[in-house]
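# nightly structure sweep
# worker-07 picked up a monomer target from the shared queue
# config: single-sequence mode, recycle default, output format = structure tokens
# input follows
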Amino acid sequence: MKRTILTLTVLLLAVLSIQAQHCQHGKKAAIENIMTRTSIRKYLNKPVEAGKIDTLIRAAMAAPTAVNKQPWHFVVVTDSELLQKLGGERFGKAPLAIVICGDMEKALQGPGHDFWIQDVSAATENLLLAANALGLGAVWTGGYPRMERCAEIANVIGTPEYIIPLCVVYAGYPDEQPAPKQKYDPAKVSYNNYGNQH
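# output follows
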């Protein structure tokens, strides 16, 4: 009986140790994913699987959103002709574009109306990080507030007036491996009051 209890205790401690290591590895992996994300503008001639597209959208929708309004809409584009119209020559080889839009019928009313921009931007960053984690490359290209660009995008994907294209994310399997830019600058950090370095 004592031997059985000792064996179970050893097994339990081993399992807990493995779980702790896995948790620590997961934290490191999350930070590494953020630090290694970079913009990719060249893609292999290989489609992105439907399961990965679904994961990208689910990750985007997991973003924080003011008052949980979720004022976003995603238009997934895989048609080659539409992709060409959206990206022109710059992203002609991208097998996937996701147009990330603000839904003005779901946006907050009143002074907080423009929070939709933050919400949809947070969703976009989630999508970019998910792409990197899935082995895909992606690049965020702006739409809003350049209304002429928004109109061009809306014309291609047929959105109604209350749906505003914030940006287009092109994605696919990367055909380039640019090094991530090192953007950390301690001069851009203040503590407690603006200008205090420590």
